[in-house]
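Notes taken during the Thursday session

The instructor put the following on the board and asked us to keep it in front of us for the whole hour. The protein is Nodulation efficiency protein D. We were told not to look anything up and to reason only from what is written here. First, the residues (151 in total):
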Amino acid sequence: MIDYITSNLWLLWSILVFVCLILELSSGDFYITCFAIGGLFAIVNALLGIPFWAQVIVWVVCSLLSVRLIRPHLVKRLHRGGEHRVSNTDALIGRVGTVIETIEPDGSGYLKVDGDNWKAVTDESQTIRRGEKARIVSRESIIVKVVRVEE
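Then, after some discussion, the predicted structure tokens were revealed:
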């Protein structure tokens, strides 16, 4: 068994590459991907018959170069516009939904947006009736403030 592994070191490096790529799925920060890239270069050296100690050096150097040269570009491309990206309930602001329970000016009602029901209030002086469209303009905790959308 040991003889087989030592004569087929490319297989050892291939396993390392696949393990790194699987681990990257759970981390998402692209560090482990850089070790997989280093492993690809080590596979090439193993196929060329380079000694194991040299394969390890190639793996280390290529992994470090990947962290320094490739990772910043991958992270930048993945997180493009990340500073301005809204999430959770903040992503609802500006969305239009259908009123499913009449929203009174001094009370509240419910709005359906993308299949979810939200408690809604309005600053308008007129009632927003069931079936009308309303746009979310702000939110306070889990209550959204809406205005009528003229169709």
